[in-house]
Amino acid sequence: IGVSPLFYHRAASSLAMLWKSYPKANFIISCDSSHRIIRKILDCEIDIGIVTLSDYTSHNQLRMISISREQRLVFIASPDHPVFKEIKIDWKEIADYPLILGPNNAFTRELVIDKLRIAGVSKQPDFIAEDSDLIAIKALVKTGIGIALWNIEDIKEEIESCQIKILSTPEEISVPVNMIIRSEEELVPLTKK
User: Fold this and answer.
1) What are the tens digits of pLDDT across the range 144-169?
2) Whole-structure pTM value
3) Smaller CB count within 10 Å for the chain: N or C?
4) Rounded to an integer, what distance in angstroms lies between the CA atom of residue 54 and that of residue 40?
């Protein structure tokens, strides 16, 4: 089972339901980018993917099942980061600050680059760290070296304890959570619910 790092918390409840249907099964969980998960499903290396991408029209061998309402992504930074001198930050200003995002082809990185392009920002942001591991991203953000984009569900504890703050951005960012299987696969009980 391939799981996007953005949805590891969401995948846990889905996997628990799947385990209840197949209690003797041994699930091997791989955390990877949505693009790589799709490739692994197409190559029959994994059976199920929990991903952020929503356009699978180019892959007629895949079937998408929506498994959750859209998840909210937020920009985060250390409370003493200079970005908080701004009352509300726009996309041009986001490009002015060092970013901590996933590697090339990571969903969060592509999303930020696309949002900047749509907003007419030509400046390429400074990606100072590339990581898909939430623990590493939170640790980097807490040092104050940059801002990151992550699923709000995974950082609530740090927000409540004021270790991390959410930036006020020009728009809310929400993304779908989808389960992907090969078209010829029989639907597992979890996907029928």
Assistant:
1) 999 999 888 889 999 999 999 999 88
2) 0.79
3) C
4) 17
